Amino acid sequence: MAPSGSGGLRRSCHRVLRWIPVIFITIIVAWSYYAYAFQLCIESIEDIGEKITTLLVYHVIFILFTWAYWKTIFTDPLTPLKEFYLSYSDREQLEGEGRGESHQEILKRLAKDLPIYTRTMSGGIRYCNRCQLLKPDRSHHCSVCDKCVLKMDHHCPWVNNCVGFSNYKFFLLFLAYSLLYCIFITATDVRYFIFFWTVGGSFHQHLIQYWDGVPDTQAKFHIMFLFFTASMFSVSLFSLFGYHCWLVCKNRSTLEAFRAPAFRNGPDKNGFSLGLTKNIRQVFGDEKKYWLLPIFSSQGDGCSFPTCLVNQDPEQPAASSRHNSTVKSSAESHHFPARPLRESQTRLLIEGAGQNDQRGTSNPTVTIENET
Fold first, then answer.
1. Alpha carbon 332 to chain centroid distance?
2. DSSP line for 167-210
3. Residue 167 above 90 pLDDT?
4. Residues near 179 by Cβ (< 8 Å), separated by ≥ 6?
5. CA–CA separation, 372 vs 84, rounded Å?
6. CB 301 within 8 A of CB 83
7. H or E segment at 68?
8. DSSP letter at 251?
9. I want to staple 256 with a disulfide (CB 3.0 to 4.6 A). Which of 210, 217, 316, 368 is the partner?
10. How many CB atoms lie within 10 A of CB 263?
11. Which distant-in-sequence residues (6+ apart) come within 8 Å of 48 by Cβ?
12. Contacts from 112-116 at CB under 8 Å and sequence distance 24+?
């Protein structure tokens, strides 16, 4: 067995290594800023009006992009509220039982007053042995962060962070603005790229006057390589951003897209979907003025979610006073303007209810499970 000092050193090395993708992206972005702002805009574009306009638009996109990226990286993933953790006596009782029926009976008793409606694939209560808590709906244990994360989507190495309830909106905006950033660079740089590669012919002779504004081979290299980099990133970002837009419209996380959340009556991949508009508002909130800004505005508290299921779970109360008090205190324990869950649910389930009448509306909350 390795000594504890060796284990601590290994963990420290792993923490440092996990920052390598972030450092790589930061270096690429810093270089792109130099290549575009200085080598292209300042050194190569001769028209003053075009230069000023291009720089202004570029910096607006650049600020939004870096702001969203920063918030995605440094927003801590939220963990379940203290009500979901087992007390010392409950842990002792649970550890004294095996993995059989009695073990599940204890978990069911403990989950009775909590807004837990999802199950494991085998139909049991979701419990995290590592964190010693009853898992809220849509939460999962991240092996990299070593904690349970509310509405976990995935662990992203490019931000060295878990993407979940607290920063999913920031992650979406990061993808959107990084895509816009790359498209803008590609669109404004393509003319100079063509000038560089076009040899001979009247087209080249007609446009060579623009390329003469580029003073040296170094600038030409930056502009050429900038076009290649931006266009390649645009393709991959378009696919990733499109996929997450689809997830938002369906009200699914990446984990739920791979395995449908399981309820008492079985898996249901559309268990959380409340219709396009309400699905979007769950992530971006009600105030549209905040939608395009990396400011937290998502609905709910991350521990409980409305569903469109017709059949309610008879073992769970329709409304728990204990949970209501938990939600009210969540705004104090979390650094986000979390709204009371019941208000969010009422707003989501009542407004535009005609769209979901054929499916029915139901009590709050649901999730998927990696059985641990």
1. 23
2. THHHHHHHHHHHHHHHHHHHHHHHHHHHHHH--SHHHHHHHHHH
3. yes
4. 234, 237, 238, 241
5. 16
6. no
7. helix 48-74
8. T
9. 368
10. 22
11. none
12. 112/315, 112/316, 112/317, 113/317, 113/320, 113/322, 113/323, 114/83, 114/84, 114/320, 114/322, 114/323, 115/303, 115/304, 115/316, 115/320, 115/323, 115/341, 115/364, 115/365, 116/316, 116/365
Residues 220-276 pLDDT 10s: 888 889 999 999 999 999 999 999 999 999 999 999 999 999 998 889 999 999 999
Amino acid code (one letter) for 2: A
Distance in angstroms (rounded) separating the CA atoms of residues 288 and 247: 20
What residues contact residue 220 under an 8 Å CB cut-off, 6+ apart?
A: 196, 214
Question: Cα 102 vs. chain centroid, distance in angstroms?
Answer: 37
pLDDT bin (cut points 50, 70, 90) of residue 279 is very high
Q: For residues 235, 22, 177 and 273, what is the CA-based torsion angle, rounded to 10 degrees?
A: 80
* Cβ-Cβ contacts under 8 Å for 10 (sequence gap 6 or more): 2
CA gap 206, 141 in Å, rounded: 61
- DSSP annotation string for 253-285: -HHHHHSPPEETTEE-TTTT---HHHHHHHHH-
CA 367/CA 262 separation, integer angstroms:
7
User: 41: which DSSP letter?
Assistant: I
- Give the C-alpha separation, 199 to 184, whole Å: 26
Q: Which residue, chain included where needed, has tokens 């905040």?
A: 290
Give the Å distances, CA to CA, from 184 to 36, 127, 346. Answer: 11, 47, 41
Q: Name the residues annotated as catalytic.
A: 156
Q: φ and ψ at 156, to 5 degrees?
A: -105, 115
Q: State residue 141 phi and psi, 5-degree precision.
A: -90, 125
pTM of the model: 0.80
Distance from CA of residue 73 to its chain's centroid? 10
